[in-house]
């Protein structure tokens, strides 16, 4: 994940940032259920880690593919659109989980 100069590649940095954002969003969406006792800490942790992994993978892969497509505007645009679709899917999944747990 790193190159010879001990610096992270753009895909690695994006993967880390995406995982942090995805995990934070997941934790925020489940926090009220945890506080009310509807969700155990182990279950919440498992969900947060899974969501963080999904977000990190989506962000890292999208950035890696976009980097390979540099100089090809149509393919770069398609990559950005796919990354956006993956992000929307994750957000929808988080919102659906939150709505299911609130009912």
Describe the structure.
The protein is mainly α. It has 2 domains: about 10-40; about 40-100. It is built from 3 helices and no strands. It has helices at about 10-35, 40-70, 75-100. The chain starts with 9 loop residues before the first helix and ends with a helix. The mean pLDDT is about 80.
SSE inventory with pairings:
Blueprint: H1 10-35, H2 41-68, H3 73-102
Helix pairs in contact: 1-2, 1-3, 2-3
Look at the helices and sheets and give the structural class. mainly alpha
The whole-number mean of residue pLDDT values reads 81
Distance between the termini: 42 Å
Instruction: Give the beta-strand count.
Output: 0
Rg result = 16 Å
H/E topology pattern? HHH
Beta-strand portion reads under 5%
Largest beta-sheet details = none
Total domains: 2
Please estimate the helix content. Answer: over 70%
Unreliable sequence segments: none
| Number of helices in the DSSP assignment | 3
Backbone shape = elongated
